[in-house]
Structures are given as C-alpha cells and as structure tokens.
Amino acid sequence: MSENDEDLFEAIKSGACGYLLKTEETDKFFELLGGLVKNEVPLSPGLANRVLKEFSRKERIGGSVEPALEKEEILTPRQMEVLTLVSQG
User: Fold this and answer.
1) Which residue, 10, 7, 37, is CA-closest to 22?
2) CB of 80 within 8 A of CB of 71?
3) What pTM, to 2 d.p., does this model score?
4) Sign of CA dihedral 4, 34, 75, 71
5) Which of 39, 49, 65, 67 has its CA 20 to 30 A from that of 59?
C-alpha cells in the first residue's frame, strides 16, 4: 500500500480492517498478518502512530471527525488497545 496519508485515511474511511506497506520487512509483514487470528489489526507501526495523531489533531482543533472515522464505529475497545500498543512500538 501507499505511504501517503491521504491513501491511508481514505482506506480507513472506506472500511479497511488494516493497512500494511509493501515495503514492510517480510518477517514483520507476516507477524502482522498472523495477528489476524487473534483479532489484531494489521497496521504497520508508523502508520498506527499517524492514525492516532490525526484523531488527536482533529479533536484538539475542534474539527469534527467524519462519522465513518469515529473510534466507536470503526474500532472495538480491543482493537483500539492494540492500535495504541502498535503505535508505541
């Protein structure tokens, strides 16, 4: 997938359950895919951080998060926990 933020956020808005980069190291790529059996979101660590920063930025500046991007609608509490941990490395 593309590293472009616009592509990443468009994929999420469209209902993507994860987002992996083609440039991801093979071992890491398969590790993230393996997490699917544990209901973990396959998202490259750097991308997880960008998603969380975007949510934080929109909330800080008082902008609205589009309904399709609201955390309650797109992520379960467990998925949010995993996303947070992935973004922290």
Assistant:
1) 7
2) yes
3) 0.53
4) negative
5) 39
